[in-house]
Fold this sequence. Notes:
Strand order of the largest sheet: 1-2-3-5-4
Structural class: mainly beta
Shape: elongated
CATH superfamily of the largest domain: Nucleic acid-binding proteins
Radius of gyration: 37 Å
Number of domains: 4
CATH class of the largest domain: Mainly Beta
Number of strands: 20
Mean pLDDT: 85
Amino acid sequence: MVNTNSKSSKSTTMAELLASHKTTFVKVNKGEILSAVVTKLTSSEILVDIGAKTEAVVLEKDKRIMRSLLSSIKLGDKVMVAVLNPESDYGNPVVSLRRFNDERVWKQLDVLQKSKEQLEATVDESTKGGFLVSTKDGLSGFLPNSQTVFLENSQDLVGKIIKVSVIEINRAARKIIFSQKAGMGSEDFEKAVKVLKIGQKIEATISNVAPFGIFLSIELPDKKLVEGFVHISEVSWERIVTIPETFKAGEKIEVEVINFDKESQRVNLSIKKLIKDPFEEKLKSYAVDQRVSGSVTKVLSNGVLVNVREGIEGFIKKDKIPANISYNDGSPVNATVVEVDTRRHRLILVPVLTEKPLMYR
């Protein structure tokens, strides 16, 4: 007897086949964060597998982010993506790696700040306070003038590749501060400047002019660069309140080494020491007990400053001014020299009295 149900039990309809097949594809939604695997990586396209019917296309309009991704990920890497569009006109999901790259970048910055590792960066723009620079993997930040050791004019540096270290990061403000000097430790600085001696005359290049002094770059015999600094008080023997406009960034000038600041890793320099102190000759014409005359230039809490002549400054201590005498700016003064202070270029004076006041010391 033939079993009539045998054939029907072995045959399966197309509907049954489709029903029995369980799909492994996932349904994606806009804004969803998914784990993915990089499946294609070219200069113009990145594809990732998110478990959908087709591979997802990575879309990044910011070229810096794309450049950063291309330099840091490889085929087979696991990444986190954000869904921008569940299905484009071409049938592929569209995703972004911006958040993934952002996390990676800030972790990298934290490591770089702690290690002080130097990395290559391109000078993108010169600003009043420094330079905007970016690394090949997309890190962009600011290099202040105070952290540079350039030998060239600032405008000539745009487009050039330099070595920098990360010294400050602020994720909330999305701020990165770079330095050219951070890579040199205190021991490195001491070794580097052993070739320099106090009193030595050297040539250096101005890197920045500040209200309080001039920053310079010193190129050592081994081609290393260290920072030099001329304080405003070491620019001229004359008392100046502003740095002359004749000093420009990129200009080479001759200076004299006066000491080494190990903490700031800076060589302190002087311009005025290269010329003879003009006050030395002028002060030779003054002696103790000599009578002089002048006018008050400034009244201080501890005494008064007096302009004697030819820029020679005199000083009368407060306790030497009789109670019945008061001075104002411009008041005439007749005095006697009690000390010639060559270090401070100053004559220490006492007023000439027509009569000695009671209790005068």
